């Protein structure tokens, strides 16, 4: 049985993603074939922002006219939260006072040319995306997947536990206890809502973190240990199955 279950009663559903993946924004238009997302601020010319659209895939055709369009780089195509979101998420800024104020500051920086503009845009964009993601989670999700799991009143605690402590030897009983559910109910509900088993999700998350660490020059043995694999060999096999390449070929990555 795991210890201090009460420490999971109030959890942050998004911090692990922002800690793992860096976000940056640019006002330069996306290049042809680029898969980067776009953050679109909609509003009448000369007036305040009315809505914000996070467009992850496809084209957005907002009305009324667009005030600012920024290209958003989530650093990696393997960010599972971005993959879980719908193609577009639209939020009316008046629904969230903090988003309204942050968007106003973002538009002012985008349309101005003050020193530190790029740094300001990155930080404001990060806050805007965070607020949009909060809104998406609060609304829930109609389809199964990570977003649905993060929206679930009990399952999100198990997901956050895995996100925050991937190296821990989690078993189904531990995760069910974190979620406050019986093991059988937890296992069935997790698969129905998230779409895969808890252990499969944990492995995916561990490998996602590992890929980020290796890309920054970490070594295979150290990464295998840090993300909870029993050996570098087992880690390498799992990594190859997911990414189609050996971890020793990523970054410095030497064993």
UniProtKB/TrEMBL annotation:
The keyword Oxidoreductase does not apply. Residues 156-253 form the HTH araC/xylS-type domain. Transmembrane segments: none annotated. PROSITE patterns: HTH_ARAC_FAMILY_2 (PS01124). Keywords: DNA-binding, Transcription, Transcription regulation. PANTHER family: HTH-TYPE TRANSCRIPTIONAL ACTIVATOR RHAS (PTHR46796:SF13), HTH-TYPE TRANSCRIPTIONAL ACTIVATOR RHAS-RELATED (PTHR46796). This is AraC family transcriptional regulator. It comes from Sinorhizobium garamanticum.
């Amino acid at each position: 049985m795991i210890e201090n279950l009460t420490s999971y009663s109030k959890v942050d559903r998004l911090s692990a993603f922002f800690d793992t993946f860096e976000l940056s924004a640019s006002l330069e238009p996306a290049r042809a074939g680029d898969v980067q997302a776009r953050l679109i601020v909609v509003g009448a010319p000369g007036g305040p922002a009315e809505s914000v659209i996070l467009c992850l895939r496809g084209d957005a055709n907002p009305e009324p006219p667009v005030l600012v369009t920024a290209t958003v780089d989530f650093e990696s195509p393997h960010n599972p939260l971005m993959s879980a979101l719908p193609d577009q998420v639209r939020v009316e800024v008046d629904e969230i006072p903090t988003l309204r104020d942050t968007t106003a500051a973002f538009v002012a920086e985008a349309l101005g040319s003050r020193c530190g503009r790029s740094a300001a845009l990155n930080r404001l964009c990060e806050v805007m995306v965070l607020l949009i993601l909060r809104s998406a989670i609060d609304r829930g999700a109609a389809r199964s997947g990570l977003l649905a799991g993060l929206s679930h009143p009990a399952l999100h605690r198990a997901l956050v536990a895995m996100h925050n402590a991937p190296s821990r030897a989690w078993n189904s009983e531990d995760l069910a206890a974190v979620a406050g559910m019986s093991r059988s109910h937890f296992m069935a509900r997790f698969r129905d809502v998230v779409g895969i088993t808890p252990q499969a999700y944990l492995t995916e998350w561990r490998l996602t973190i590992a890929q980020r660490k290796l890309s920054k020059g970490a070594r295979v043995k150290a990464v295998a240990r840090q993300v909870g694999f029993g050996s570098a060999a087992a880690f390498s096999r799992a990594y190859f199955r997911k990414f189609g390449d050996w971890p020793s070929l990523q970054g410095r990555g030497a064993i």
